Amino acid sequence: MSQTPRHSAERSVPTSADVARLAGVSRATVSYVLNNTSAVRISEPTRRRVREAAEELGYVPHAAARTLRAGHTRIVLLPTAHIPVGPLYSRFISELQWALRRLDYTVVQYGSLGLDGDAAARAWAELRPVAVLSLGEIALTAQNVEVLKRSGAKAVITLGPQHVEGAHSLVMDQREVGVRAAEHLLERGRRRIGVVVPEEQGLDLFSAPRLAGVRQVAEPAGATVLPVPLAYEEEAADALAARWRGLGLDAVYAYNDEYAMLLMRSLQDAGIAVPDETAVIGADDLLLGRLLRPRLSTVRIDMVTGQLLAELVDRAVRDPTGVPERHDLMGAEVVRREST
Amino acid sequence: MSQTPRHSAERSVPTSADVARLAGVSRATVSYVLNNTSAVRISEPTRRRVREAAEELGYVPHAAARTLRAGHTRIVLLPTAHIPVGPLYSRFISELQWALRRLDYTVVQYGSLGLDGDAAARAWAELRPVAVLSLGEIALTAQNVEVLKRSGAKAVITLGPQHVEGAHSLVMDQREVGVRAAEHLLERGRRRIGVVVPEEQGLDLFSAPRLAGVRQVAEPAGATVLPVPLAYEEEAADALAARWRGLGLDAVYAYNDEYAMLLMRSLQDAGIAVPDETAVIGADDLLLGRLLRPRLSTVRIDMVTGQLLAELVDRAVRDPTGVPERHDLMGAEVVRREST
DNA sequence: TTGAAAGCGCTACCAC
DNA sequence: GTGGTAGCGCTTTCAA
């Protein structure tokens, strides 16, 4: 009875044994045929019978069983959390996935929202990924890296503000963005610089170092730096603009172009001239920033390409004993337009 | 020799047998303790020994082995392709992930870029997900659904323009967006309506039905509809604006707010008055659209909430025999501002 | 309260 | 060329 097929919903999932039975061969043969094992020659008629049987049953191999047998996976794990990401970043992710797939890896994005570092690392380790690529949404500790490696990960790669012990690190020091913005504003003769700090969750990983970067440049030069919290809402921006003159600022680095556009509009509506009274600069070089009047100055950030990163992953997997590479790859450059 | 621990990199991955050995108990006991199996009482000292041993070895259970044994997973598969998605969508995804995790599912985003429907369905089926949630980036056929169900998926849910046989469908008819935009423009007395069709890849899944929606309303009313291809670049918009008057349009539905902002700027720069000479409407109700002058009119789209969708998934998984639900849930509403 | 052992589906070694 | 079969790591039934 347990073998009686009924509704397709009830019929149990076909295994390679079912295929073998239907084709009248052994499971070994099925495996050889379906995997095109070159070490073994199977006659063409047999191959056909096997393929047809597989087709008829709708056979799909069981990844978990294969993994267990093989002792390793080709999973590259990409932990994600909730970060309101821009178009640059999502394009980068696609590019990366595509490049990794070409190298025959399976990219799995694993949502880790609401897990702390330890729990997250354990959850990832359960999947036995061959590599973990942490893009900075979740901060990894050296201990987490150790857990992952112990679970068989050949490579742990972090893309973030600092080097992590034991991991290949792509150090993207976000301070650089703040540094560039501040240098530019100083050069334009500004001396009292506001720095927008988004109130939205999850962005402090980026905003804090950027603020630090501004400070690092501005304060030694005798300029004042004032952090300005701002929620991404029209009302919040209007409220800020209303008390703007009281702040006595002559420039603002607005975290990124979206916040900059928001703030600039409110400033203009409040009668504050940009850039004459207050210079405004954003970051990310969004197309939309170019559409404003005055056109928005910005800090363009050079992202590493997905292709490049995929190659690094592959290299690290192939040579796990290799010395952790450490690249400093934050390139940031001011694009001056009309708002500064 | 094969058991001699050396560098941590070389030491083989600890299994529950290793934990058992170290704790001086059987593998069964280890399993009981680590899974808090309530059907079995284990003495407190034993529990402690087991936990300590696991901790010391850095033991992490092997998901594939557990899956194989259990015969099913708790994976909800979320296929993704490259679609340049907006902030609404990515927030929705986070929300969904979070809600699903609370229901004890493991959300796996699986990049399927460059796979056709059949190959993709097979690849997904290998993971034996308990549910597949196709958010419309990849069009599923009834056949694909069948493959997935045969591989044990209890629920296949699609969010897209049309119902898919065998799947629970959340029908989001994108035509609705075009319909609303067109109705509004007609109401404002416009009779020659341009419809921006993005040249970017992957967007036609959305743009085609939206265009159809405009036609559906405008043509019976005696208005003209003209598709206008546009790449998301400043130069392309400028070029289009330069030949705008030749098109003889008095209104344009610009696909979404981003394209609308781009085009509106170029139109204004070309001396075309908005809305007097040409009305412009977008879609998505982005914050940035409110910042333009004139403020951008838009079609606000009501997204289903992640919470709601997670509950639907859970319901479908618990009762796989249930009749496929079919919800029509595209709510779209015009937000009139100043550009129309 | 604990242990022995079967078996999930697959691949690869070895024998025929 | 093809088949038999061990064993990957885990959970769970049954026995002690």
Automatic annotation (TrEMBL), chains A, B:
InterPro entries per the UniProt record, alphabetical: HTH_LacI (IPR000843), LacI/GalR-like_sensor (IPR046335), Lambda_DNA-bd_dom_sf (IPR010982), Peripla_BP_I (IPR028082)
UniProt xrefs under PROSITE patterns: HTH_LACI_2
Keywords for the protein's UniProt record, in alphabetical order: DNA-binding, Transcription, Transcription regulation
UniProt domain HTH lacI-type: residue ranges: 14-70
Pfam families linked to this entry: LacI (PF00356), Peripla_BP_3 (PF13377)
Domain of life the protein comes from: Bacteria
One MF term in the entry's GO annotations: DNA binding
Keyword Transcription appears in the UniProt entry: yes
CDD domains tied to this protein: HTH_LacI
SMART domains to which the protein is assigned, alphabetical: HTH_LACI
Transcription regulation as UniProt keyword: yes
Entry-linked PANTHER family: LACI-RELATED TRANSCRIPTIONAL REPRESSOR (PTHR30146), LACTOSE OPERON REPRESSOR (PTHR30146:SF153)
Protein name (database record): LacI family DNA-binding transcriptional regulator
Organism annotation: Streptomyces formicae
Taxon lineage: Bacteria, Bacillati, Actinomycetota, Actinomycetes, Kitasatosporales
